Amino acid sequence: MSLDDSLFLGVLSSEIHTAWSSVAGGRLGVGNDSRYNSTRCFQPFPFPTPTEAQQEQIRGIAEQLDAHRKQRQAQHPTLTITDMYNVLEKLRSGEALNAKEQKTHEQGLVSILLQLHQELDAAVAAAYGWPNNLPEEAILERLVALNKERAAEEARGHIRWLRPAYQNPQGAQQADMGIEAKAKTIKATAKEVPAWPKTLSEQAQAVQRALQLHERPATAEDLLHQFKPIAKLQQPQRLQQIDSLLQTLHGLGLLRKTEQDQYVK
Hints:
Blueprint: H1 7-12, H2 15-24, E1 27-28, E2 33-34, H3 38-42, H4 52-75, H5 81-93, H6 99-108, H7 110-128, H8 136-155, H9 164-167, H10 179-191, H11 200-214, H12 220-224, H13 235-251, E3 256-257, E4 263-264
Antiparallel strand pairs: 1-2, 3-4
Helix pairs in contact: 4-7, 5-6, 5-7, 11-13
């Protein structure tokens, strides 16, 4: 999958989003493992409003992080993401590594992985305008306050678009609309056939919206036709992009996959 814009995944990989999702998603099973619930973890999460320079910094680190993990796994096929992150957590806590974990540390170059996450956490914190290395309780307090602030803004008709050039190309600000006016706007938008966005974050949002509007389980090929038509020669590449995004969103817990390899929002 092309990582021409990793801002979206970069923020979701930060300790700030992890702190939010670990509480919002709850726990599950005998092991009390955290679970990622799209309705609770993703949709109400207040994203930062970074400057262009901050966006570029987050993108760059996120791409380095993704490349590092893929490279280590390519060189060591038995190396898993879970093993790498279990060792990373031990490094963070200062616990000693056993022989198996030491091997994972060496194969995965986990110290570099930890360094990249620390750089990403610092960059995302700066995008919020917050100090780095805040305790989890302080992060949650600030996120809850920011979430309430954003909800109040949206109630007044002010929406903070993640990518205004794509989501709000006319630059029109929604003023205090009544329920009927809002319903008409949503209905009209649903009928439009959108163009395929240029950046990864916009593509991820567009795929989720297309799947939601599809109203039934869908494959990448089904969603391909939810966007403006393109030349036949370009369709295989577009299909691969959509399929990769579906897999990524499923991995993040934002979509559900059926036994027939179809996806549901």
